Task: structure prediction
Amino acid sequence: MKLQSKTTFELLTLPLLIAIAFSAFIYWEHFHLTSKALNTLMALGALYGLLHAPKRTLPIAGFWIGLLWCYWIGYSFQYYGLGWAQIWVALGFGVVYALYYGSLGLTHNPWIRALILFGLTYVWPMDFNWMQPELIFIESYIGFEKWQFALTLAVLASTSLFLKYRKALPLLALIFVIQTTYLPPVKPDLRIKLISTDISQDLKWQESMMSDIIDENFRQIDLAINQGYDLVVLPESAFALYMNHYPMIEKELLKRSQSIAIVTGTLHEENSLHYNVSYFFNKGEITVAKKTILVPFGEYIPLPEILKDWVNRHVFEGGSNFVTADKPTDFVIKGVKFRNAICYEATREELYTPDAKYLIAISNNGWFKPSIEPTLQNLLIRFYARKNGSMVFHSANGGGSGMVY
Result:
């Protein structure tokens, strides 16, 4: 009976407790219940569990972590007529992260596990970087830089060198990774209006809705002009069309750009190639900012060529065939430079360079409603903005708009 009880704990209870502790900060944030003290305790408890739990616990814990962080990814499949695939996509991510965190079970040694876990911060399965182990400290009293994460893991691993109550002694070293404040960059001297929309993804691309959506976009721009803003930012694909195929819309936006700078998401076709872009209208001129990093499986297929074309044709109906620019585009508005970032790009460190103090990010999170996706995206943007001393002005459809730093 005792053996059975131990097995139940190691295979059912303990993995779920580790996963919940590892993921709780996302859900506290989502429901506006964030507590730095609680996040700190749960994050430390989760890492301690990953370093010291029995081997067979770890793949199961990883599976639950994968589900708690990524269950929403399959939601977008319903818009390709593949609603039945949602559960399989979620389970697939569970399996991926069962292997990811299960790799810690290659050893019983907590020091080697700490090295493996630190190494995993550089590993992105399927080029999808939203599983960042350091992110669990983003709203806590522990710093989230690489060296702070490494030291935290070393402290938790070193408890194995002590017995009973003395195991708490190494925790005193956590004082060296405490970070209670963050100094944000100075806000630019511009009045910026971020437009937040909530248009259902199944309506956004319907031709019958196009006129109403365009009229509302112009109404928001005109309102921003009347309110005296310097810049108005509309979400990704706010104009759900290929902008360079609609010269009359371009003409109206150019006319308004004499009064206000405008950034809006749309599509762009050039030499028979398709781009997900931001259009920047300013003082009668247009800049087309093409996306540089595509979403895995959303905008490109991270598979060998022999499978890529088949999956794109038969699963995504040709919808994952976008191409990219070679480098990101910057906008200059009244002497202030902004880096353009479209959705997934805003959660990639490549966009956060020393010369990019301010970013304009646009997203369409309507693909994943209702879910924690906008919250996780916001936490990741915050993560990279704080690491690089940047400020991000984010306009989104379906949740997530705001100034992030």
User: Anything to note?
Assistant: The mean pLDDT is 94. The domain at 192-292+327-404 is CATH 3.60.110.10 (Nitrilase/N-carbamoyl-D-aminoacid amidohydrolase). Residues 2-30 form the longest helix (29 residues).
